[in-house]
Design brief:
binds iron/sulfur cluster, 9-stranded mixed β-sheet, alpha/beta, TIM Barrel, 15% strand, 35% helix, 318 residues, two-stranded antiparallel sheet, catalytic activity
């Protein structure tokens, strides 16, 4: 009840803020993403973890900080995504972190490249109470898969996923719900029919065909799919490309939740991969205070007045 009321307050204050063009924030974040680690086993070319290109510090979330965060947020937090950058299963206590959040009554989710779904991790995942597992797999043959997931092994992903689904069935568990996520690009769109067939055969709960964010889209890119139904960008009629969706001066995410890096920096959303807009540090002050501080509200004001002025918001489909 407390959580539902908090959510209502957030949504109502969001609507009100849009109407008066000033940030009004009632309630506390109902969604959080917490980063277990910045480390990753792959070398994906558009990702700072893969490229080892962070300018912010890199490392592993401490259990003490995690406990502190759960304690501070458990009364109003509905959804915890234990993922931001990096591969979460590289955190040595990853499934224990999930268990703690689950025991605190929070719906838990994570995203993985599924290279660590071995017998031990599958068992621990099923026991942890994890509610949702998103597996990224952007190709159905090794050559297409590794074109983006550099250093990845498709057979390992497929075996891990099959093992998890098989063990879940044997244990008669409903969770975690498994979502197979496929980022559609010009290089893999031809594999969609084969992918659909495979997903059906192994019995994933949901197949998500997602549009891909492309950093330099104005001049076109071979990553933009030919089927524009899977693209965030369309030709502008003057030889360039533009965002399909008109940018509006709003963003519900800034009223709904926040992202916390492994070392406790609060950043606005998952588009701020390198932590350009740090609103505060949970090591210095509680999240409730950061959530309503001047810096956060200045960011919200800019969103309501002229979102295009914020670099990370220019190419965002929210
Ligand atoms: S990039 Fe900007 S508009 Fe997009 S979710 Fe983040 S804050 Fe909102």
């Amino acid at each position: 009840m407390k959580k539902a009321y908090n959510f209502f307050l957030l949504y109502f204050s969001f609507l009100l803020s849009r109407a008066v063009k000033k940030p009004i924030i009632w309630g506390y974040p109902s969604t959080l993403s917490i980063e277990p680690t910045t480390s990753c086993n792959l070398r994906c070319p558009e990702c700072p973890s893969g490229l080892r290109s962070f300018s912010r510090p890199t490392g592993m979330l401490s259990e003490t900080l995690f406990d502190q965060l759960i304690e501070q947020t458990k009364d109003y937090l509905n959804y915890l995504h234990l993922y931001f950058q990096g591969e979460p299963y590289l955190h040595p206590k990853f499934t224990q972190l999930i268990s703690k959040a689950n025991e605190a009554g929070i719906y838990t989710s994570t995203s993985t490249n599924a290279h660590y779904l071995n017998e031990k991790n599958v068992k621990q995942t099923l026991e942890s109470g994890l509610k949702q597992l998103i597996v990224s797999m952007d190709g159905i043959t090794q050559d297409v898969y590794e074109d983006y997931r550099v250093g990845g092994k498709l057979s390992k992903v497929q075996e891990g996923l099959q093992l998890l689904l098989q063990k879940r069935k044997e244990s008669q568990l409903l969770y975690p719900r498994v979502i197979l996520q496929f980022l559609v690009t010009g290089k893999n769109e031809h594999q969609i029919p084969a992918l659909k067939q495979w997903a059906k055969t192994i019995g994933v709960d949901e197949l998500q065909l997602k549009t891909t964010q492309i950093y330099d889209y104005e001049n076109g890119s071979d990553l933009i799919p030919k089927d524009l139904g899977y693209s965030r960008y369309i030709p502008d009629g003057k030889g360039k490309w533009k965002l399909k969706k008109e940018i509006e001066n709003k963003c519900w995410r800034m009223w709904q939740g926040a992202v916390i890096t492994w070392d406790g920096r609060v950043v606005p959303c998952c588009f701020d991969k390198d932590g350009t807009h740090v609103m505060g540090k949970v090591k210095d002050e509680p999240i409730k205070k950061i959530w309503q501080n001047e810096k956060y509200n200045a960011f919200r004001t800019q969103l309501l007045e002229d979102r295009k002025q914020i670099e990370i918001c220019k190419n965002c489909s929210e």
